[in-house]
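quick q for whoever's on today - can somebody do inverse folding on this one?? i tried earlier but teh output was garbage lol. tokens:
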């Protein structure tokens, strides 16, 4: 069965001890299996303390990040490639120390709007760095999720098909494709077939609405998303991602362009999302089993 998770920004904008405690307690209280903790700046995460709180609430964790321009492993700047590799390895250390199962996000380029397409040399460098990162992750049993995002957040992987080809170039069983309905809604021709075509390469999944608020309150056809997940045989984590100006992480909210208030009550939002995902998955599996 899929483990269900919620992104920490539904609760908190940072990761102080108080925020860590609050986010983990509220996630566990709603019956989620895991929390996804943003690790854009690894220095903000106290791994030992986080692990202690996760253990106390018997909650799992995953980490997500996007690289910044200075760490862009898809650039042709060797210093940036080296900084990017060091950043990713540092995040792997934190993942291991807190017991996280997955590290995902925009790990293959900077997390930003680009004004030029990627170069073949830059993509080759990204593949090489991620192969080294993937090998290190495998030693700790960590899965890497390459998140496909829309064209305004990276120029390297914007579609599931591109990500499958990229992951195949890396060629490691623990380096997988990470899809997100918010981005798929912008870039894919068909959500259900993109999921089916990704198939066993899918290793992590973000569920989010077109406006990033309540599931069902936007324009994404989630029936087709759930049927695609069922047909792909996907049994990995499904993390609910939602952002509102009610909870701000200055770094992340700015890049994501979270200017509007989509909700105020994170608990109500996350409770609703959990029920929505469970019902959707159940219906899709019934449809699949009984034709
Ligand atoms: Mn996402």
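ok took a stab at it. sequence:
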């Amino acid at each position: 069965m899929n483990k269900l998770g919620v992104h920490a920004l539904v609760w908190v904008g940072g990761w102080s001890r108080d925020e860590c405690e609050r986010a983990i307690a509220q996630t566990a209280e709603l019956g989620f299996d895991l929390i996804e903790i943003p690790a854009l700046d690894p220095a903000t995460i106290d791994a030992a303390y986080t692990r202690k709180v996760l253990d106390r609430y018997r909650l799992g964790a995953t980490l997500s990040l996007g690289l910044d321009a200075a760490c862009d492993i898809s650039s042709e700047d060797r210093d940036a490639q080296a900084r990017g590799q060091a950043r990713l390895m540092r995040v792997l250390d934190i993942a291991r120390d807190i017991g996280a199962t997955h590290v995902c996000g925009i790990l293959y380029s900077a997390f930003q709007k680009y004004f030029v397409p990627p170069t073949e040399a830059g993509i080759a460098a990204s593949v090489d760095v991620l192969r080294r990162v993937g090998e290190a992750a495998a030693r700790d049993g960590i899965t890497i999720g390459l998140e496909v995002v829309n064209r305004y957040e990276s120029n390297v992987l914007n579609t599931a098909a591109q990500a499958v080809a990229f992951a195949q170039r890396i060629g490691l069983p623990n380096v997988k494709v990470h899809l997100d309905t918010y981005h798929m809604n912008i870039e894919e021709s068909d959500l259900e077939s993109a999921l089916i075509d990704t198939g066993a390469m899918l290793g992590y999944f973000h569920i989010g609405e077109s406006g990033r608020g309540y599931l069902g309150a936007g324009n994404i056809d989630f029936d087709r998303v759930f049927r695609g997940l069922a047909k792909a045989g996907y049994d990995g984590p499904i993390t609910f991602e939602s952002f509102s100006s009610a909870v701000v992480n200055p770094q992340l909210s700015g890049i994501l362009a979270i200017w509007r208030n989509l909700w105020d009550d994170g608990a109500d939002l996350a409770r609703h999302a959990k029920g929505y995902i469970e019902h959707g998955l159940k219906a899709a599996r019934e449809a699949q089993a009984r034709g």
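fwiw The chain has one domain: 4-290. also Residues 147, 180, 206, 241 surround manganese (II) ion (CB under 6 Å). so keep that in mind when u check it
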